[in-house]
Design brief:
By secondary structure, the chain is an alpha+beta fold. It is built from 19 helices and 35 strands. Helix 8 (375-385) packs across helix 10. It is elongated.
Length: 631
């Protein structure tokens, strides 16, 4: 249960009368008589229900603390003083409770000992009017006096009855604990407190602090001053950590499983702009985002209009100054930058979106559909939005907020119909079929353009082709694309070269002439050919075109490359190879002068030729001699 209501309406006094605990623990709070920070207590109801209690500040300056305290509560006790009635912060606290999606509660009319029956009736009428159209409209109004004790039995009975009607939170799901307090205890170390909003955690588990990414091991857990081995959603919890410094933790941080959340500077949201606002809100308005126990500055980006009138709801994007790790459907509150007051809120549509352009009907319609999409279309939407990068299973968990079983069923259904493909089994990474087909089209277009620009080249190197695709494309996805295209016979791979299956090298009349002249020149020169740059000049042909034709001859095996710019006719080189092998078989070894005698060439060709035979595993050098390489 959490309290709510205007300052000095008796929230803290009510809790003390119920539990005996003074939740104003700070000296300043006790001196000034006002609640500044969150206070915590607990109470055992007659039915055996154990209730954790969060006492929130009522002063307008501390509303951000109130929002932090309201996170994770199941029941709100809206406290209204009988001698003052509904006040400014009463209304703001009600708006915050509505925006946070709180559905259970009742009104507590305090300080009844200060008013007569007539005034009490007037205040009750005021309260009934105030709660119309809210989740408290049909709920009890319990008059009490914390000073005399009158009405306290009715308060306890009402709280007990409502507590029994609140559904128990599921212990499954992602463990998340927003931090509302952090302190150290001598001999124990750092302690973090908060309300567990989902999942469960046990002593000994390793957890991660977001958005910092620091990890620590759970050393101990307490619930209302009692040590326990495990806690689950809905419980007020104190967690003691091993190896985590107090200065590393702040209110607003979130504890969760390692690598389970994805802190983002942007959030896609459904935004309700409160009817109580006096003028429209404009695009790019500076705001304060309150979610969990955090307060983060950012800008509200209206995606479908330039300004939003009071009382309307739209889809929008928040762009934040610091990242926050959330899950789809998380509730949030937005307050104005200055002067500070609650202006709206709603729930998260996508906690890890890309940056959207405004006035894009497809974007706006897509976000509006996110509110009601069934599991399979929801997963398909996020796979499509993730584009070529793909969507990992862990990301899909926070983007869809689906239970594990439902998410796996949705993925299986989409995979079986080939609407999505799994591109990495280890990371469980998925890509939408449309993105995959688009990448295949890109590969086809790149190769087609390459063949047009280089008609005499057999194809494009595998690495060069990859460099023309989006830079973040992973090796596994690239290979999956090529394997698919090889399977459908759209491309052919020859060694490290990729070409379209339809590509054929066809020489024009002038290119055929160039080819024959190159072949003749190498045939005529035997073992003393000119370097290719000299040959190109002697023939008077365009160097780039001549090199392309030469590469065709190399591919055909008619010309052999010995080193950069030095080529030989295959007949000449194969003849020398046969003579060299015959000599080594007879003599057993060969010196460089002996090889010179066999080849009949100068040192300019001698060294490249013998090193070529070494590299081709024909000969092996041992000191100053060479032998025939065995095997």
């Amino acid at each position: 249960m959490g309290t709510a209501g205007h300052i000095d309406h008796g929230k803290t006094t009510l809790i003390k009368a119920l539990t005996g605990i003074n939740t104003d623990r700070l000296k300043e709070e006790q001196r000034r008589g006002i609640t500044i920070e969150l206070g915590f207590a607990y109470y055992d109801l007659p039915s055996g229900q154990h209730v954790g209690i969060v006492d929130v500040p009522g002063h307008e300056k501390f509303v951000k603390n109130m929002v932090a305290g309201a996170t994770g509560i199941d029941i709100v006790a809206m406290v209204i003083a009988a001698d003052e009635g509904v006040m400014l912060q009463t209304r703001e606290h009600m708006e915050i409770c509505m925006l946070l999606g709180i559905r259970h509660g009742f009104v507590v009319l305090t300080k009844t000992d200060l008013v007569d029956e007539e005034l009490l009736e007037l205040v009750l009428e005021d309260v009934r009017e105030f709660v119309q159209g809210t989740f408290l409209e049909d709920q009890p109004v319990v008059p009490v006096s914390a000073q005399t004790g009158e009405g306290m039995p009715g308060f306890i009975e009402t709280l007990d009855r409502i507590s029994r009607s609140v559904p128990e939170r599921a212990s499954t799901g992602l463990f998340r604990l927003p931090v509302d307090r952090v302190f150290t205890i001598k001999g124990f170390g750092t302690v973090i407190t908060g309300t567990l909003i989902s999942g469960q955690v046990e002593v000994g588990e390793t957890v991660m602090l977001y958005p910092s990414g620091l990890t620590a091991k759970v050393r101990g857990i307490q619930v209302h001053n009692e040590s326990v081995g495990r806690v689950q959603a809905g419980m007020r919890t104190a967690v003691n950590f091993q190896g985590l410094e107090k200065r590393s933790v702040n209110r607003g941080d979130v504890l969760s499983a390692p690598d389970a959340l994805f802190p983002s500077y942007m959030l896609d949201i459904s935004f309700q702009y409160l009817k109580s606002n006096k003028k429209p809100i404009k695009n790019r308005t500076r705001v304060r985002l309150h979610t969990g126990t955090s307060e983060i500055l950012g800008n509200l980006i209206l995606l479908e209009k330039d300004e939003l009138p009071p009382g309307e709801t739209t889809v929008a994007q928040l762009r934040l100054d610091t990242p926050v790790g959330l899950v789809k459907d998380d509730r949030y509150v937005v307050r104005s930058y200055s002067p500070v007051r609650t202006i709206g809120g709603g729930h998260i549509l996508n906690p890890v979106p890309g940056k959207h352009k405004r006035f894009q009907p497809a974007v706006v319609d897509g976000l509006k559909k996110l509110m009601e999409l069934p599991p399979e279309p929801l997963v398909a939407y996020h796979a499509a939005e993730s584009g070529y990068r793909g969507a990992a299973y862990a990301q899909l968990k926070v983007m869809t907020n689906l239970p594990e079983k439902l998410l796996q069923q949705a993925l299986q259904g989409l995979l079986s119909r080939k609407e999505i493909l799994q591109i990495d089994k280890e990371e469980r990474l998925f890509i939408h079929q449309r993105a995959f087909e688009d990448l295949i089209r890109q590969v086809t277009d790149i190769l087609s353009g390459y063949h047009q620009a280089h008609p005499l080249k057999p194809g494009m190197s595998k690495e060069e082709l990859r460099s023309k695709l989006p830079p973040f494309l992973g090796a596994k996805l690239y290979n999956l694309i090529l394997n698919q295209m090889l399977k459908t016979e759209d491309v052919v791979q020859e060694g490290k070269t990729i070409r379209l299956a339809a590509h054929r090298i066809t020489l024009g009349t002038d290119q055929a002439d160039v080819k024959q002249k190159i072949l003749d020149a190498y045939a005529d020169s035997g073992l003393t050919p000119p370097y290719f740059t000299e040959l190109g000049k002697n023939l008077g042909f365009d160097s780039a075109r001549t090199k392309d034709v030469l590469m065709i001859l190399v591919e055909e095996g008619k010309i052999l490359k010995v080193k950069e710019d030095l080529y030989f006719h295959a007949n000449a080189l194969n003849g020398l190879k046969a003579d060299t092998v015959a000599f080594l078989k007879k003599e057993g070894e060969m010196s460089t002068p002996q090889f010179k005698a066999i080849a009949g060439v100068s040192r300019k060709y001698l060294i490249p030729l013998i090193e070529h035979f070494d590299s081709q595993n024909i000969t092996i050098r041992i000191g100053d001699i060479r032998k025939l390489r065995s095997g």
